[in-house]
Structures
1.
Amino acid sequence: MHVFRDIDKQNSWLSAMDARVKLVFALAVLCMVISYKGFAFPLMVLACCLGGCLMIRVPLRKFLLRFSEPMLIASVVIILKFFFSGQEALFSARFAGITITGYTDGLREGLAIACRIMGAVSVMALLGFTTSFTDLMSALSWLRVPKGFVEILMFAYRYIFVIFEDAQVIYTAQKNRLGYAGVRRGLVSFGTLAGSLVLKAFERSHAITVSMIQRGYDGNIPMLQHRPFRPLEVFVSILTVCVVGVAWKIL
């Protein structure tokens, strides 16, 4: 369960900011990063967000876990663009009867996409590290995100821990019985584990639905009451967005 534990979100002024302000700011910066065509602006955003993560003392293991998947995706994009897209050949080699060609413009385009990926992920990572899940769902509700989507997210967040505990119990039982002693047995055990989790998820969903209906659930989840906006937070956020927008325009 320690993989899913939240960082102490009360150690910095970023954590104390209104979740609605942070969410709107993050969405604005995210749109700028995605729409930018070069390298400079996404790298600047990445550096600022990494600095923010260091400031709130994000554990290294959690930091690496959060960025491992986007780094893999960015690497694959660079490789695909470098070898399969472009017109300006950087080098050409023949290996085992296959001609391998690397393209300069393809590499440049792949690096630009990778920078946008990492910049966008860093924005969302900093938002997640400084905002609790309930506050984030409350902010999404305030932004008029469809109610059904918010409810699904809340239920998924609540019961992913239950499913994770079930997976740990099944995996430990399989491992104690040498279920992973060898590739073939490991694959069979993993298939059994996945199937058991699917069945348990369906059983729990049915039981939870029945119990909630019996307790008067009508499809509405009362969200947190929003406190009034702080003028200073709003002013600083608007000013920061303007500064970032100027950087997006001139870089």
Note: The mean pLDDT is 84.
2.
Amino acid sequence: MIYLDNAATTPVCPEAAQAAMEAMTTAFGNPSSTHAPGRAARALLADARAAVAQSIGASPEEIAFTSGGTEGDSWAIRSGAYLMRHKGRHIISSLTEHDAVRKALDHLQSQGWEVTRLAPGPDGAVSAADVAAALRPDTALVSLMLVNNETGAITDLPAVVRAVRQAGCPALVHTDAVQGWMKVPFTVGSLGADMISLSGHKIHAPKGVGALYIRRGVRLPPLLPGGGQEDGRRSGTENMPGIAALAAAVRAARADAHAPARMAALRQRAVDSLTAAAPELTVLGGGAPHILCLSLPGYKSEVLLNYLDALGISVSKGSACKRGARSHVLEAMGLEPRVIDGAIRVSLGRFNTEGDIDALCAGLLRARAELYKVL
């Protein structure tokens, strides 16, 4: 199997799998317990929090563990809006956000909030100038993803934050950095965002674990009340196998510092090979080293995916959350329907090789020669 759908999920790395097993069998105590097993689990929790914090230049107390990117996005948006409700009830986001953000915004709209959803430019990213133009005295929250999960387009978050601050706007700034973490270098200082959503299963950790960075001083109300875990911010006994695995995956990714450059080289290898052999092939958006969205206009993406799957090559049509619907991201970019309908997403991980890319290119070109275009 050649797996090229790492933006949907990644295979768990050996270090993360081993850490999860040890947390389940050795450090299995409840971190809230005061006996020896509980203290051992609490020490493991603190160690993991420090590892995640260090990866983005944050302080450990600014990291709260979650079940993943969706929970982090919903928590930041819904609770952030509630926290800022006395400042105003206007939110700025974009038309190209992940459904975790889109649906949280839909919920707030149903509660009377006004949401301005900005269109992307031709590269798939939202400009800071458009954000600045959309700011209002009652803008309470800005939420824009760092790296688009379908096109790899990178939003200039530092410029967005500067635009918000220079306008004297008190709005909180949140970014879904799930696709950018450990691929596009950033720190909390370089981004300037107040809240940053992270997810484990995009960086070779298991599914079901993630984190939300909450800038010191932002008293974000909990989305999940209960026993008061995570310093009262996120209740529920901590998922220690997942958290330990997340920390191990972070350390493994940081040790493999050249991985983003390798992914970028593999991405470019695919672009060079495919565009040379198929001039009509279109590269859509881009910027991140690990995501390549391309289209063979006239062919159906579902047919291309099935053809490649039969060859043992796994790619996707777009976000795994869409389940067959036409991409709202590509529609927002103003692309022609025949381009959208022929689009596929290739996404790389730390373990992909040149051989994987060569097999993909050979498979796509074979599909181009053997499949019928849709008239």
Note: The first strand starts at residue 2 and ends at 3.
3.
Amino acid sequence: MSGLPPVLLIAFNRVDTLAEVIRALAPVAPPLVYVAADGPRAGRAGEAGRCAAVRAMLTDLPWRCEIRTRFLDANAGCALGVSGAISWFFEHEESGVILEDDCVPDASFLPFCAEVLARHAGDERVMSVLGTRLAPPAPAQRASYSFTRFFSAWGWASWRRAWTRYRLELGDWRSALPVHGRPLPDLGGPSNAGWGRKFDTVVRVRGDGRPPHTWDYQWSYAHMLHGGLAVLPRTNLVANIGEGPDATHIGRGSVWLNLPRTPVALPLVPPGPIESDAAADLHRERWHLNHRPWLARKIWQFRNRHAIGGVDARRGW
């Protein structure tokens, strides 16, 4: 399929989930694929072998394409490993798609990204293109996509001009925000507090000199700091299948795993004004991010921990 954007495929030590991602990409056959893998951790039995198996898969993709590699000898960790891979990718490409090894795309995801990346290439307000829709599908919505203020790392695309706003360390995040007059104060008390907890987790002193453990809260912060928006597809285009003993951040039994994927029709129908989808943003804030008053937040966590109620009910669908 011609006209597809370059793809960055980020992996580590999970053969099973990576195989699913590769299987989903094979029919689409992107012609240029960047592959990045972190090094094995010291003292982890069998990890070097699993990492080697992953690298063998990444360099022998089952379709005809150009492959460029970034394989680290030592383990950099989630924050430096992933953000470093993305920076490497955008050193070589003006725009492209980023998929981690547990994010399985629908066949329409790459063509969707190709069209949106071209349409919004010069618009500084638009900073990323999402594949995962964590709000209910919007089949009645005529436009193929809308916009959201909240980034999601489960399959996405962006531009070099946007990624230049990224920084890993957020030690001054509170003092930096008022300079730009946005964005946390206008989100409301529970939401403001919720994002504050996330950003404080990034800067919390670890005591061992290591960098932050996560990379994606920082990209969410960049969107907020610069008043940036992310393209939100009308239907969900990427499913995260990352549950398991090797999962880094996903809790057991998360209701947000394995979301149904529904193709988006091409050519796309663009939306009207470039502004955030307030209903989708509010739903994600309340149901996915659980930014609510303390008691409501604990009740929701209890329901999910013990699987009380149906999956759709616990997603707010």
Note: Strands lie at 7-11, 32-37, 66-71, 95-100, 103-105, 126-130, 145-148, 156-159, 229-233, 238-240.
